[in-house]
């Protein structure tokens, strides 16, 4: 099997639902100059109608067949996290979205599994919704942003959510959004090209140095875009740990020891980088991913994996074995 663990699904009514739930915040469903649906807030477009590939499951499955993908893991698009909303409204939208994701899986259970959405700005509400989607909807985990309104994972306010996620054995898929330094990366699409992996790296570094994995050692984090930059600069973190004042440290081991607990998708756009990732963190911690249907995704993830020189059993781990183990597929 080939299981693509990094794909995004946006149900057809997502804009309408966002406008309805967010109307108290001034959100309004409208159309742009080209007749495409948008959501406005105080005259500014905050959401746009996305291309059909995001919502058309038949189109999606047709491409999967051509790519040799047997199953996709559906997760929300990061523009639909809505962490800046009041938590009750954010929870209402997450509940709507989670049920649409569940519907997609129910119709096509052999082709799709889902990761849900939770209002991370309120750990108690996020933990409660996580338990619902796993125990009642059969989800395998959740997708969260690399930062929550500028707060990162070392903030102790998130501890109730980490405790719930660890207890439920949930996979936590970390995807960048609202990235740090975006105002300095407006040219050349750099907020995407550089900003996205930067914010993932920042999130993981804070998670490690903040002692999150000291307190919750069984958390399962999956990192988008091959983990950002940290897999390639972990030696610098270890050096910083070695020279730091021990009185200021919240961790007892070198950062690289914690980094080895994370999981990574294969989206490197470089055979050499993918080989390096596997060599450093083992085939047991790398999973096939495409970022479908974004244009910065890997259009041929299976071919990218086949292009590297690894043992057949390692390729099987990456293409499906790890996803089956982490997400309970086939159990």
Key descriptive features of the protein:
alpha/beta; 3-stranded antiparallel β-sheet; 8-stranded parallel β-sheet; 15% strand; single chain; 12 helices; globular; 331 residues; 11 strands
What does this structure look like?
This protein has 331 residues and is an alpha/beta fold. The protein is built from twelve helices and eleven strands. The chain has helices at residues 14-21, 57-67, 87-107, 123-135, 159-167, 190-209, 212-215, 230-243, 255-259, 271-281, 301-306, 312-327; strands spanning 3-8, 27-31, 37-41, 44-48, 71-75, 112-116, 141-145, 171-175, 220-223, 263-265, 286-287. It has an eight-stranded parallel β-sheet with strand order 1-5-6-7-8-9-10-11. Helix 3 (87-107) links the parallel strand 5 and strand 6. Helix 1 runs antiparallel to helix 3 (87-107), helix 3 (87-107) packs parallel to helix 4 (123-135) and helix 4 packs parallel to helix 5 (159-167). 44% of the residues are buried.
